[in-house]
Design a protein that fits this description.
The protein is mostly beta strands and 107 residues long. The chain has a single domain, classed as SH3 type barrels. The chain contains no helices and 10 strands. A 6-stranded antiparallel sheet has the order 6-3-2-1-7-8, with no helix packed on it. It is elongated, with a radius of gyration of 17 Å. The structure holds zinc ion. Zinc ion (ZN) binds next to loops.
Length: 107
């Protein structure tokens, strides 16, 4: 399990959108340790001619961002935080490094 999960609110630490408000993780690309973040790191994608786009098209799409460039926003204290784990006999829970509240399961 990566420290960042789908539906987390995250802040970008680097790149063109690092000064923008936090946004939501829409997808984790697990084998690459990357994430797609809603409306962030948008790249133009050029589509070839197809039935839907008889003249081709340019569409904007989220490009993957490395997980190491993202910081989770804690829902309890609303600050960007590192992720810690609370390990009990039954489960491993993600908690905020600052206020120790659970960060949720990313669903
Ligand atoms: Zn917190």
């Amino acid at each position: 399990m990566s420290h960042i999960l789908k539906n987390d609110r995250v802040k970008l630490l680097a790149g063109v959108d690092s000064d923008k408000e936090p946004s939501r993780v829409v997808k984790i690309i697990g084998d690459k340790d990357m994430a797609l973040v809603q409306g962030r790191n948008m790249k133009w994608k050029h589509l070839r001619r197809s039935q839907d786009y008889p003249h081709g098209a340019r569409v904007q799409k989220e490009a993957p961002i490395p997980l190491s460039k993202l910081m989770v926003i804690c829902p309890a204290c609303a600050k960007p935080t590192r992720v810690k784990y609370l390990v009990t006999e039954k489960a491993k829970t993600r908690i905020c490094a600052k206020c120790k509240k659970p960060l949720g399961e990313g669903k």
